[in-house]
Amino acid sequence: MSAEAVSESKTAVRRGRLVVLAGPSAVGKSSVVRELRTRLPELMFSVSATTRDPRPGEVDGKDYRFTTRDEFQRMIDSGELLEWADIHGGLQRSGTPAAPVEEALEAGRPVLVEVDLAGARAVRKAKPEALLVFMAPPSWDVLVQRLTGRGTESDEVVARRLETARVELAAQDEFDTVIVNEDVSRACDELVSLLVGN
Ligand code: 5GP
Q: Which pTM does this prediction carry?
């Protein structure tokens, strides 16, 4: 190997791993992701843009980038989004800004993108190397309990979320791995090993 090649191979950074996490609303993705971010400080968690209103406790720029519909449309038109989708029958739109994901992968950081089913399919098309992970509830009843128990949404919104959940659960075979979220720490362990394990 020439001296140049040696120095190039020393500076070349191995690309980070891209994991796409999907699963029904209220399955516990946010809790798992919160723990994951403390356990893996090098993780780049993609902050999605969304047109929905913040829930109590959600912070703009950390949980989501909350945008108007017009601003979201501008992002679509300018090609800034890796993927985007109409969520819950068009009640809201959410999407993944492409540039921060690509920059983190190039810098060798593991990246986690949390999306809905349509988003997972879109990322797979755009980035075939992505690992698709589905988070499932221990049972349908547990999911219904968690969704209705949150108490922050109207009956109409809950009904739509349940309908979306039914469709998403039926598609879990399309994913590379299914994590059953019975216990936040254990689900987190599984994600850590997918993101940075051997
Ligand atoms: P929530 O409004 O409860 O935070 O999320 C509703 C759904 O939108 C969830 O299934 C979540 O994974 C999905 N979602 C959040 N961000 C994105 C995104 O950037 N793109 C897509 N396609 N779905 C997203």
A: 0.88
Pairing of strands 131-136, 81-87: unpaired
ipTM of the modeled complex: 0.98
Nearest CA to ligand 1 atom 4: 25
Sign of the Cα torsion 67, 69, 75, 79 reads positive
CA of 42 from ligand 1 middle (Å) equals: 23
Tens-place pLDDT, residues 53-85: 999 999 999 889 999 999 999 999 999 999 999
Distance of alpha carbon 198 from alpha carbon 76, whole angstroms: 36
Output the known binding site for ATP.
Answer: 23-30
CB 139 within 8 A of CB 193: no
If you count them, how many residues does the chain have? Answer: 198
Contact 126, 83 (CB under 8 A): yes
